[in-house]
Design brief:
The chain is globular. The chain is mainly alpha-helical.
Length: about 260
């Protein structure tokens, strides 16, 4: 199967997964819900003269504070793109696994991995393109006349940075799923790391080198004035490059593992 046909097939398979649409629902309606709560809190606090007590004091900050929940959706997309290949089919379909058919139609495992990476990236980019502007609009409508911090081009840069962060996170999740051939372990570990307890922030209390770990490096892409424990945050450009190196390296390892073991 040619590269273009392989890519179309992977996009079709990903779009047909119920878990993929759950991930989109977490990223988009979920982020919008968090934005509504944040923006309502900003509006009420400013009206009461207590805006200084909030962590986010503008519509822009209310919207970008919802980014971590969208990251969870990106993780889910990256994981299910590969873990679904190893899920046994129903008895009516012979009880086999999708990966057998995938590799029969496309023997080149590198081509399969690249196609999956591109399919995941495409869906995450579309999700981000809808989610982030929607969150900004909703936050602006709810917050009202409270002045925003930062120039318009800064908002655009953070919007693009959010999309990049989500894509790279999804690719890291995809790579881990290839290596583990499982959805449960990477899903639990990466979702917890993205939403609850960040391993990088914990390590940051021990060494400033933790800012070079992928999630910590990428946070400045969407969060300004963020300082990691025990060190100074990387610039958005440097952080994005570091995170991209992690993602490319992880996919390279995943590709080697995929090509050297039995399906």
């Amino acid at each position: 199967m040619s590269g273009a046909r392989t890519l179309r097939a992977e996009i079709g398979k990903l779009a047909a997964l119920p878990a993929a649409w759950v991930a989109v629902a977490v990223a988009t309606p979920g982020s919008l819900g968090i934005t509504v709560l944040n923006a309502a809190g900003v509006r009420d606090a400013v009206a009461a003269g207590e805006g200084a007590a909030l962590g986010c004091t503008s519509a822009v900050e209310a919207a970008f504070s919802a980014v971590p929940l969208g990251t969870v959706g990106a993780v889910v997309l990256g994981v299910v793109a590969m873990s679904s290949e190893y899920t046994p089919n129903g008895a009516e379909a012979g009880g086999g696994r999708q990966v057998t058919t995938t590799l029969a139609t496309t023997p080149s495992r590198w081509r399969v991995l690249v196609a999956k990476a591109l399919a995941v990236s495409a869906l995450v980019l579309v999700t981000a393109a809808v989610t982030v502007p929607s969150c900004l609009v909703v936050a602006r409508l709810l917050v009202g006349d409270v002045p925003d911090v930062g120039a318009p081009h800064e908002v655009v840069a953070r919007t693009v940075g959010t999309a990049v962060y989500w894509v790279l996170t999804a690719l890291l999740a995809l790579a881990v799923s290839v290596v583990t051939r499982s959805g449960l372990v990477p899903l639990v570990v990466l979702v917890v790391n993205s939403s609850t307890v960040s391993f990088s922030l914990l390590v940051g209390r021990l060494t400033p080198l933790a800012r070079f770990l992928p999630d910590a490096a990428g946070i400045p892409l969407f969060a300004r004035d963020w300082e990691p424990p025990g060190g100074v945050a990387l610039t958005p450009l440097a952080g994005g490059l570091v995170m991209a190196v992690w993602a490319v390296g992880a996919l390279a390892v995943a590709g080697l593992v995929l090509t050297r073991r039995d399906a």
